[in-house]
Specification:
The protein is mostly helical. It contains 5 helices and no strands. It has one domain. The protein is 75% helix and 0% strand.
Length: 109
């Protein structure tokens, strides 16, 4: 019986964690890419002082170009946001991707 208790506790702990993506959620590489695209678009919109409606339209255009529905994006965003560790790991990937993009744009002296 004592041997079963640790196994049961481990099973209970693992069953509490839900790493199953909701139906229609994006895989991580695709979500990282579109999230970075939206961050860059948001920065461009702010730099040109775009009207809020224009900024929203530009963001919708980014999703449309990538073939991603707003619902799928929001569902994936919510899923990542439910778990602080999942969100932290995701944001680390976003940071790496943004740094990679910046490195390819900026010529080295």
């Amino acid at each position: 019986m004592r041997r079963l208790l640790p196994i049961f506790c481990l099973f209970a702990l693992l069953s509490c964690r839900s790493d199953n993506r909701p139906p229609g959620a994006l895989d991580e590489p695709r979500f990282v890419g579109v999230y970075c695209d939206l961050l860059e678009e948001s920065l461009r919109s702010r730099n040109v002082s775009a009207e809020p409606d224009t900024a929203l339209s530009n963001a919708a255009a980014v999703l449309n170009r990538k073939g991603i529905s707003r619902e799928a994006f929001e569902s994936t965003y919510s899923w990542y946001n439910e778990d602080i560790t999942r969100w932290k790991n995701f944001m680390e990937e976003v940071t790496r991707e943004l740094e990679r993009r910046e490195a390819t744009r900026t010529p080295r002296p």
